[in-house]
Amino acid sequence: MNIVGGQSIQADRLLKAFASDAEVRLRLWSIDTRLPSVIRRIPYVRTFVNAPVYYSGLLKGIREADVVHAFTSSFWGYTLWVIPAIWLSRVFGRKMIVNYRDGRAESHLAGWRSAVATLKRVDAIVVPSRYLVEVFGRFGLQAEVVPNVIDLRSFRYRERRVLRPEFLTNRGLEPLYNVDCVLRAFQIIQGRYPEARLVVGNDGPLRSELEQLASELGLRSVTFTGAVSQGRMAEMYDAADIYVMSPVIDNMPGTVLECFASGLPIVSTAAGGVPHVAENGRNALLTPLGSPEALAGACFRLLEEPGLALRVAKQGYSDCRERYSVDSVRQQWYDVYRRIAGIN
Fold first, then answer.
1. Could you report the per-residue pLDDT of 190-216, keeping only the tens digit for each?
2. In a domain, 240, yes or no
3. Would 299 be classed as within a structural domain?
4. How far, in Å, CA of 284 to CA of 265, rounded?
5. Alpha carbons 257 and 261: distance in angstroms, whole number
6. Long-range interactions of 133-137: CB distance < 8 A, separation 24+
C-alpha cells in the first residue's frame, strides 16, 4: 500500500493489528493501484486507469469475504469507490461496514442524495469520533465510534520540561487545513522569539502559494519539506517542541495521537471533531477558528507558563495508552466484526 494520508495509515495499522489473529483475517484491496509515475501525476487519467482494476478486484474480494469493511472519505471518494462496494455486497449477501472518516460529512450528506440513501443500506456505520456520530444522527443515520489507533512503539515519547521555540505542522497543504493561519501566527511568534523555527512537514496543492506567503510575511527559518514518510515523521515529532495546526474542517486527525505518543504539546483550532480528542486545557490548547493571534497566544502560554506543556503532553500520552492503543482498538473492531458477522 502506498501510504499517502490518514486513511491509509489507519488501514495499515489495522492490518498489522490483526496480522497474527487466529479468528479474524483481514485482506486489503486498495483503490491506490501502483501505476507508472507519469500516469499517477494526471488526476483524471489516474482515476480512469485505476477504476477497472479496483472494481475487478473488489468483485473477487467481496465474493470471498464474510464482512466488507470500507474506509471512506466524502463526496467523489465515497461515490466512486464505496457505493459500488455497497451494491456488490448486497448482491452477494455480504455484511457491509462503512468506516466513514471525513470531517466534511455534513456537507456531503446534505448535498449528495446518493449518500444518505446508500448508507441506509449498510449493516454498520463506524466513525472515529463522537463528532461524526452527532452529524450522522442529524440525518437519521446511526453511527458508532471506534477511534483511530496508534502504535506507541513507532514513536519516541520525550518529556519537554523546558520548551524551545521549535514548531511543527504537518497537515496537508490544502484549504480545509488553513495552513496560512499557522504562518501568520508564526509571524507573531517570531516578533517575540526571533530565533523561532517552523517545519511544514507535508505537501499539497497550496504549497507554492504558502511558500510565497511565508516570503511576503518576512518569515525566517521556515522549512517546507514536501511529502514525508512515516518513519521520518516520527523523527520530526521528536525534534519539535510545539505542534500547531489550524484546520477549519476536521474529524479525528491521526496526527493528534502521534503528537500524544511523542510527548509533543499541541495547539490547534477547535474545528469539527478535534475537541473530542484534543480537549482544551486537559491534553492540548485549543483556539477559535481562523485567529492567528489566538494561535500565537496559546503557543506563548506553552513557552512561558511553567509546567503547562509537560502537563498537557503527559495527559495526551496517558490517553493514548488507555483509549487508542493497538490492543484497545483491536478489541473494539473485533467486537464489531463478530456482531456484524452474527457470531456470539
1. 999 999 999 999 999 999 999 999 999
2. yes
3. yes
4. 6
5. 6
6. 135/105, 135/106, 135/109, 136/100, 136/105, 136/109
294 and 202 in a common domain: yes
225 and 166 in one domain?
yes
> Which structural domain range is residue 187 located in?
152-314
pLDDT in tens, 169-194: 999 999 999 999 999 999 999 999 99
Q: pTM for the complete prediction?
A: 0.86
Q: How many domains does the chain have?
A: 2
Which residues, 6 or more positions from 327, have their beta carbon under 8 angstroms from its beta carbon?
A: none
How many Å is the maximal CA-CA distance in the chain? 63
Residues in the chain: 344
**How does strand 242-245 pair with strand 222-224?**
unpaired
Shared domain for 85 and 164, answered yes or no, is: no
Q: What is the mean pLDDT of residues 126-142?
A: 95
Residue type, 25: R
Question: Is 319 within a domain?
Answer: no
